[in-house]
Design goal:
Helices cover 47% and strands 13% of the residues. It is α/β, with parallel strands linked by helices. The strands form 4 sheets. The chain has a 7-stranded mixed β-sheet. It has a 5-stranded parallel β-sheet with strand order 12-13-14-11-15, sandwiched between helices. Strands 1-3-2 form a 3-stranded antiparallel β-sheet.
Length: 727
C-alpha cells in the first residue's frame, strides 16, 4: 500500500483500505483517532475527516461508501490494495510455482516511516499487529517460491530470488534460508537471526457478534459494557477474541490450540451471548481451514473464514444466530437448526436427555463386530438385576463405538418390563462446573415435584436421617437453583454427595435400575467422586452402572469390569463399509479400510465422503484429528516428516533424514501415532492421522520435507509410496 503521509485523513484511508470491502463502524473509527474528545466531538471530527478522504480517493471517489453507521472502501478495477492482495494470496493457499507476482508490491513494512509516540494508541496497536501479519505472509510467499525452484533443481535461482526481495527477510533468518545458503553459498543481505512463527493450516470455527443491527446506534457506555460482556462469554467458552474492524467481535475456536469441540463450543457461546444481549444483537458462525502462525497477530479478523462468519451475521435478524453449513455437520443431534439456501438458523441446544440417541449413527447402519462386547454387557446386567449389582465400563479411542454400544444396550433392555433406565451425558463444558450432569438431570426431573427436592425425596422414600440433613437438602436445592457456594465447604460437599448416592440407592431398591453414563472423560471432579460412591452403592442391590470413556479418560477405581474397544476386525470393517455406501472396486475399498484403520466412525465418514484418495480429511473429523495432532507437542515436526514419508515407512528412513530422531519415534509409538511392523517398519495407526498431518502442512513445507527425503536417494525405498499433499 502506498504510504508516506501520516495525517489523519491518510491514516484513515490506510485503515479503510486494509479492510477493503468490510463495513467499518463509525464508532470504531472515532475511537481510533479521537478517543480523547468524547462521542459527539469525535463523530463531528470523523465527518470532517471523511470529506477529506473522499478527495484523496479521486478519481475513484465512488469506492468510498458512507452511510449513517458504517464506512466501506470497495475494491475494484480503479482501487487496488496491495496489502489485501498479499493477505488473499496466502488465505487462499495459492500455489506459486513461479515467482509470486504479489511480492512486487512489497516495498517494506506496512506503513513504513509511521512516526512512533503519536497520541493514537489504538491505531498504533492495530498498525503494529497488521505490520507483523503482513511481514509473516510475505515471508511465507517467498518461501513457497524458493521451495518450488529448489524442487526444480535450481538452488542458485532460488537464492537469486531471495536476493531480489531482501526487505522480505527484514532481519529474519528462517531455517530454510540456512539450508539454501549451504546448497548455493551466496551472500544474502538482511538475513539475521530471528525465526518467524511457523505457519500451518488448521480447522477453525469463527463466531462474529454484531451488536449493530439496522440503524441502531448504542450509547458509548452501554456499548463498552456490552462488548465486555460478549468478550467474557466468548473467552469463557474457549474463544480467541479479537476486535472486528466493522465494530463487532470475532472469536476463533480451535486457535491457538486445536479443539475437537470447536464447532459446538462456538455455537454454544453464540447462543449464550444472544440470550443475554439486546434484541438487535446478532451472530454468525463459520468453519473452515485457515493459515495461522504461533504469533498473536494471527489469525486475521478479516480472513476468509471470518468473512464467512460476518456474512452469516449480516443475514441474521436481531436476536438470531446463523451458521454456515460446514459448521453443523455432525452436530444435528446436539443443536436444533432451521436450514435455508445460505446456511441455517441455530434455534437452540438440545436437551441432554436426547444426546445418546442423537449421537448414535444412522439406524440403517448395523452394529457389526461388537457381538462379544454386547454379550458381556448383557451378562453383567443379568447378574446385577438379580440383586448382585455391578458396574461395567467401555473404554476405547474416539470413534470406536462406545456410544453406539450404549444405545444398542438401551434398545435391548427397553423391551423388558419392571426396570428404569436413566442417563447422564457429560459434555466438554462440564469439566469446570461441579456436578454439572447430575444437576442437569435433577433440573429435568424436579418439575414433576414442583421443583422441590423435599418432594422428590419423599416420593423415593429417602429418610430425613440425622439433624444435618435438612441443611443438606437446602444446599442441594441451592445447587439446582444455580448457587455453587455449598460445594466450597468440604463438609457440605461430602454431605451432598452422600445424599445423592442415597437417592440413587432408593431408586434401585424400589425398582431394578440401569444408569447409562457417557463421555466420562469430560466428567467434573465432584461427579467423579459421586460415581466412586455409586460403584460401591450398586453392590448388593439391583443397580447396574454402564459407563463409557476414552482410552485415557477417567474410570472409577473400583469398577467391576472394563471392556476395551479396539479396532474392528477386517471382515467386520469391510461389512460396515459396504453397509454405509454399498460395494466398491477392490482398490478403493482397500484404501478406505486403510484410511480408517478399523475405527467405525472413521469408516462411516470416509465412505460417505466417497473418494479414495485426494479428498482430504472429512469435515466431521477435522477438528478431532487436529486436536490429536496438537497433542504430539514437540514431536509434531517429526510426525510431519513421517507423514510425508508415507503411511508406512522404515525406521531407518526417518533416522537417515533426522539422525537424532530415535527417541522421538519411540515417543510417537508410545503415544499410539505409529504401530510397529516387523523389526524396522513403522506405520500410522490409521491413515486419516497421516492425512490430517498432511492437511496441516503449507505447500512450501511439504516440498521442503519431500526434498529432504528425495535427497536420500537410494535410501528411500521404492516400495514405500510417499505421502501426497491434497490440492
Amino acid at each position: 500500500m502506498e504510504s508516506g503521509c501520516f495525517d489523519r485523513p491518510h491514516l484513515l484511508l490506510y485503515y479503510l483500505a486494509a479492510h477493503a470491502g468490510i463495513p467499518c463502524r463509525r464508532e470504531r473509527l472515532a475511537e481510533l483517532f479521537w478517543a480523547e474528545k468524547g462521542p459527539e466531538p469525535a463523530r463531528l471530527s470523523l465527518r470532517q475527516c471523511l470529506y477529506k478522504v473522499r478527495h484523496l480517493c479521486q478519481p475513484a471517489a465512488e469506492a468510498l461508501v458512507v452511510d449513517r453507521t458504517t464506512v466501506t472502501l470497495m475494491v475494484g478495477p480503479q482501487c487496488r490494495v496491495d496489502a489485501a492482495e498479499l493477505l488473499d494470496a496466502v488465505a487462499e493457499s495459492a500455489v506459486h510455482d513461479q515467482e509470486p507476482a504479489v511480492l512486487e508490491a512489497w516495498r517494506g513494512p506496512f506503513l513504513e516511516g509511521y512516526p512512533e509516540g503519536r497520541t493514537l494508541p489504538a491505531y498504533d496497536e492495530w498498525m503494529h499487529q497488521r505490520r507483523r501479519a503482513l511481514a509473516d505472509r510475505a515471508l511465507y510467499l517467498l518461501e513457497q517460491a524458493v521451495t518450488a525452484r529448489r524442487a526444480a533443481g535450481d538452488d542458485a535461482g532460488a537464492l537469486r530470488l531471495v536476493r531480489r526481495y531482501p526487505a522480505v527477510l527484514a532481519g529474519r533468518r528462517p531455517r530454510w534460508l540456512a539450508e539454501l545458503e549451504a546448497a548455493a553459498p551466496l551472500s544474502v543481505p538482511g538475513a539475521e537471526t530471528r525465526e518467524p512463527g511457523a505457519m500451518e493450516r488448521r480447522p477453525v470455527t469463527v463466531v462474529h457478534l454484531d451488536p449493530f443491527a439496522g440503524d441502531r446506534d448504542p450509547a458509548p457506555d452501554a456499548l463498552v459494557a456490552e462488548m465486555e460482556r460478549l468478550s467474557g462469554i466468548l473467552a469463557e467458552h474457549g474463544g480467541h477474541v479479537v476486535a472486528f474492524p466493522g465494530g463487532g467481535l470475532v472469536a476463533w475456536f480451535g486457535y491457538p490450540r486445536a479443539s475437537e469441540n470447536a464447532p459446538s463450543r462456538a455455537l454454544r457461546a453464540a447462543l449464550v451471548a444472544i440470550s443475554g444481549g439486546p434484541s438487535w444483537l446478532r451472530a454468525g458462525v463459520a468453519s473452515g481451514l485457515t493459515l495461522t502462525t504461533s504469533q498473536p497477530a494471527h489469525p486475521e479478523a478479516g480472513g476468509e473464514v471470518a468473512r464467512a462468519a460476518f456474512d452469516q451475521a449480516y443475514r441474521a435478524a436481531g436476536g438470531q444466530v446463523r451458521a454456515a453449513n460446514a459448521v453443523v455437520q455432525g452436530l444435528e443431534g446436539r443443536f436444533v437448526f432451521e436450514a435455508d439456501q445460505a446456511g441455517c438458523r441455530v434455534l437452540g441446544e438440545t436437551d441432554r436427555s436426547h444426546r445418546l440417541a442423537a449421537a448414535a449413527r444412522s439406524p440403517s447402519t448395523p452394529l457389526v463386530g461388537r457381538e462379544a462386547e454386547l454379550g458381556r454387557m448383557e451378562a453383567a446386567w443379568e447378574a446385577a438385576r438379580g440383586g448382585r449389582g455391578g458396574s461395567l465400563a467401555l473404554r476405547g479411542a474416539s470413534g470406536m463405538g462406545k456410544t453406539r454400544l450404549l444405545v444398542a444396550f438401551r434398545e435391548r433392555v427397553a423391551t423388558e418390563g419392571g426396570l428404569m433406565v436413566r442417563e447422564l451425558v457429560c459434555d466438554p463444558a462440564d469439566q469446570h462446573h461441579p456436578l454439572a450432569p447430575v444437576l442437569d438431570y435433577l433440573r429435568r426431573l424436579l418439575p414433576i415435584y414442583q421443583g422441590r427436592i423435599e418432594a422428590m425425596l419423599a416420593n423415593w422414600g429417602v429418610s430425613a436421617g440425622p439433624e444435618v440433613v435438612p441443611e443438606v437438602i437446602e444446599n442441594l436445592q441451592g445447587l439446582v437453583d444455580g448457587d455453587e457456594r455449598p460445594l466450597t465447604s468440604p463438609e457440605q460437599r461430602t454431605a451432598i454427595l452422600d445424599l445423592l448416592a442415597a437417592i440413587v440407592a432408593a431408586m434401585a431398591d424400589r425398582q431394578p435400575t440401569v444408569w447409562l453414563l457417557d463421555d466420562l472423560q469430560w466428567m467434573d471432579p465432584s461427579t467423579c467422586e459421586l460415581l466412586e460412591r455409586l460403584v460401591r452403592v450398586a453392590r448388593g442391590r439391583p443397580l447396574f452402572l454402564l459407563m463409557a470413556t476414552r482410552a485415557d479418560g477417567y474410570l472409577p477405581g473400583e469398577v467391576d469390569e472394563v471392556v476395551e474397544l479396539g479396532a474392528l476386525p477386517e471382515e467386520a470393517a469391510r461389512t460396515l463399509l459396504r453397509a454405509v455406501d454399498g460395494p466398491r472396486d477392490p482398490a478403493t475399498e482397500e484404501r478406505l479400510l486403510q484410511l480408517a484403520g478399523g475405527n467405525p466412525l472413521y469408516l462411516e465418514e470416509v465412505a460417505r465422503q466417497g473418494k479414495a484418495r485426494g479428498a482430504g480429511v472429512p469435515r466431521r473429523l477435522q477438528d478431532l484429528l487436529a486436536a490429536s495432532v496438537d497433542e504430539l507437542g514437540e514431536d509434531r515436526p517429526l510426525a510431519r516428516l513421517a507423514a510425508v514419508a508415507g503411511y508406512a515407512f522404515p525406521r531407518s528412513l526417518i533416522l537417515a533424514a533426522e539422525p537424532e530422531a530415535g527417541t522421538g519415534l519411540e515417543r510417537l509409538v508410545a503415544a499410539g501415532l505409529f504401530l510397529r511392523e516387523g523389526e524396522e517398519g513403522l506405520r500410522f495407526r490409521h491413515a486419516l492421522l497421516q492425512e490430517a498431518i498432511l492437511d496441516s502442512l503449507p505447500r512450501s513445507e511439504y516440498r521442503a520435507l519431500a526434498a529432504r527425503l528425495e535427497a536420500l536417494g537410494e535410501e528411500y525405498p521404492e516400495e514405500y509410496p510417499r505421502g501426497e499433499l491434497v490440492d
